[in-house]
Amino acid sequence: MPFPMLVPAFFFSSWLLMIFWGMVSPGIEVKTIGYPTAMLVTIGLWLVVFPLSGRGRGKPGMRKKWKKKKEEANKKIDRHAGASVKPAAHTNGK
Questions:
Q1: Comparing 12 with 76, which gets the higher pLDDT?
Q2: Using CA atoms in the order 32, 38, 44, 45, what is the torsion angle rounded to 10 degrees?
Q3: Which of 23, 77, 78, 92 is the most exposed place for a label (fewest CB within 10 A)?
């Protein structure tokens, strides 16, 4: 969802939370919550659920590109490490 759509969605989600909490709270015998508290709960839920949903990973295909770059870097490290471990060949001056 593009950023400009997130702002109204946040306020609407907070309002819905306040309304539904008001409908459920008498049945479970807890106090009702106001709009500022509903906003606080909504932002808390968004901060927890958004990263878990995987929506913050970036463009599609970026994960594959990152994985490919990481594999190439590991191959370079392996080549350098292998070269330093091998003994040097001596020609005895010939």
A1: 12
A2: 80
A3: 92
